[in-house]
Amino acid sequence: MLNNLNQKIPPTYLEIDRATKESGFTMASDILTCSLLKTLAAAKPAGKFLELGTGTGLSTAWILEGMDKHSTLISFDHDEKFLSIAQQYLGQDERLALVLSDGEDWVKNNLGQKFDYIFADTWHGKYLLLDEVLAMLNPGGLYIVDDMLPQSNWPEGHEEKAINFVKYLESRRDLTLTKQNWATGIIIAVKK
Known about the structure:
- The chain is an alpha/beta fold.
- 36% of the residues lie in helices and 22% in strands.
- The longest helix has 14 residues, at 158-171.
- A 7-stranded mixed β-sheet has the order 3-2-1-4-5-7-6.
- Keywords: Methyltransferase, Transferase.
- It holds the Pfam family Methyltransf_24.
């Protein structure tokens, strides 16, 4: 029961997964994380969503599947090759804006925007510019990160960064958070 996927897989997911494997992209969110992203998206009707790090769009497909028709999602990535896969399979969804941009540039150029749901799946908004991204979160908004358990593709010294990141989140008085030793290691925080 605990690790079984019991949700309908988004229609485009299998095609994006195939294209992801063919492209050589190895940083995609796992399917359990994606399922959770869908469930949490359903909790924010008419929400404004942000995904930092589109990759090929695997997690994007699940977020869209959980969103209602009045919600919007901005998702950016710096790699045109991988973003083009998301564009091919998800670009027709009018709720979605796919943006080719460096993470630092996008965050710094959009500091005034506010969101109800932020999935930080890249360095910016997680290990870099964290305060700036958390300031974009509306009260009651969800901040979600994955890959908090040790990963085989972590560079040397990354584990210490992850530990310091968690300690910093725990020290903030404007967040209520839960750390989950599940999937690839998930943190869900809600802005007070």
